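Contributing: when you submit paired examples, paste them exactly as shown. First protein:
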Amino acid sequence: MRLTLALIATPITISLLDDHPPIGRGDVVEIQGPASSGKTHLLYHLLLSCILPPAKSSDHTSSSPANQGTSAIIYDLDFSFDILQFRRLLVKRISCLFPTFGVAEHARLVQASFRRLHIFRPRSQSQLAASLKYLASYHTSRMQENEIGFLAVDSISTFYWPERPPGGANAPLRARESEE
């Protein structure tokens, strides 16, 4: 299973990666590993880092934290994104980042954060290509108040085997050669 991430906006820093430079604007990162190695959990935390407002916003002197953060887009090609698990992590992270906020403000932050998360579930390579082609239009019409801070494709290899021609990519060439 592969997970490909494309970052578009602000750098994301993860404490376990402190010895490495932050992931920056325009970087493409591929995460590979065996099953149950934490790839999806890492994805959830990267998404949270994008859609949540920075903790420094908790001082009430700037605009509301609910109005900050950037949008995140995930193409869930294998339909494995667990929205309930993601919500649990979101609630926990908000409680840690904004401990002085009350229940109502925490609920408002959860709701505002979810408005910045956009999940697409294309069923074929052509649907994926079309949705990527029209992503700019979608952004303009549906989320114009936030820039896209993160784009993830999980898992990029989902359509490889089902849509691969029988006999491999060179099958038509080999068929022509055998006819001659």
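Second protein:
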Amino acid sequence: MEQQNHSEDQTNADEEIEELQNLEEEVKLMAQKIADFRQTLPDQLKDTLASIISAQRPVNLTFLDGDSDPGPSDVMTCPDSEDPEHTEKLERIKQKISDNASAMPLLVKRMKACISRIDQLDSFKQDMIHPAFTRKWST
């Protein structure tokens, strides 16, 4: 009986050692994968971001009007340039861009005013609590 317990203990120990070796091997593989990702992932992210940004780049609207010459990489022509619906959409987009650009100085001024108000609030004493926010204790 004692030999049977000893052989079971030996078998359990062998299984644990084998499992430990498998886990160590998995950890080494994971460490290698992490090292590879750390080397390659930043470049992949940079390339992906650049392609997404270039895909979302707006159409060169001045070229579509014929006001200026196109750049070598900015050549984008619209086959439906005679289409009145397309022309109307272009005009609306140009108007929106113009309105947004003309509103910028006002927005900057309002943002500076808000920032100065926040700075004033930050400069007040931290201990100071408005009486409206204090609790009245009843006795």
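If you have annotations for the second protein, write them as plain sentences, like these:
The chain has a mean pLDDT of 77.
The CA atoms of residues 45 and 81 lie 36 Å apart.
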